[in-house]
Amino acid sequence: MVMLPDLRQTVALTVTLALATLGGLAAQAMGMPLGLLMGSLLVTAVITALDLRIKGQGPVMPNRFRVVFVPIIGVAIGANFTPAVIAEAPGWWITMLGLLIYLPVAHALGYFLYRKVGKLDRATAYWGSVPGGFIESLAMGEAAGGHPAILSVMQFLRLVLTIIGVPLAFGWLTGAPVGSASGAHLGTGAEIALRDVLILTAAAVAGAFMGRALHLPGWQVTGPILLSGVAHAMEWTQAVPPDWMIGAVQVVMGAGLGVRFAGLRAGAVARAAALACVVAGLLMVLALGFALMFYRLVDQPLAAVFLAYAPGGLVEMSLVALSLKMSAIYVTAHHVARIVLSVLLAGIGNRLGNFKD
What we know:
This is Monooxygenase. InterPro entries: AbrB_fam. Keywords: Membrane, Monooxygenase, Oxidoreductase, Transmembrane, Transmembrane helix. It comes from Neogemmobacter tilapiae. One of its GO terms (molecular function) is monooxygenase activity. This protein is mainly α. It has one domain. The chain has helices at about 5-30, 35-50, 65-80, 85-90, 95-115, 120-130, 135-145, 150-175, 195-215, 220-235, 245-260, 265-295, 300-310, 315-325, 330-355. α7 (about 135-145) runs antiparallel to α8 and α9 packs across α10 (about 220-235).
């Protein structure tokens, strides 16, 4: 891949952020759930997929830029560490153990559809249906002989369709708007003192470095969650990142997902994309089924348990939890476990079944 000169990269990034922000604001004004995230995603995805360019350059969102914003989510989630939440945590073991059943069932369901209906090769079908660990699944699937482009589409659509489908499903089930569409706020509009700014910034930066050094799953968000949680539990601060900052994170996350549509060939991946839509829908139905079985046993609302099992990304599902005023700590803890267990169980299954081509 040819690297853009710094000036062109900066201009392209600025245009991308401007278009993503306009799309996010428009979606928010129309009452779309998680409008800033969804609108920025849709605008950049459409522009990227249609290969529309300004002065020869399409939308860009460098990962090194995106990573700067992700720790903010961790700091916001860490603010939910309260004595009440900590006291509840031991009771979550039931739904944690439920992941050991849910994940193999979800993986087997996806593999069956991709293999028997989609007629994909074993490696692509197997690693494309892993219900967690986006990057790990792509790397391990390609190493096993899977088709990189099709794997990317299958795993990416699992994330995107879940992000889009979950808030819409909540709105349909409850008959009321959710998240930003209902006027709910992810952060706080109140001003915070300089001391709070320094503490939250330290939690974000030091937490990210700590998470990376310890090789934590989703280190950009889990590290800051831990340090922010300590700071709030010790009552060093009660501050939360402001609304505008959480809104900026949504725009960056949405644009980062949207630009991944670059280079996808519709003809080559159409069948996989269609099946990915079916699989994503079935996995959400499966997640709802497990939530119905377990939610009364963990003293969590049905919606929170459903979100904990939803097959989306860690960062994005955490954002949804914050938006819907769910127990963000509960949801995030389950998605960290989902990523780890998905990769571990997929590796064990691969050794037993030798899903290579």
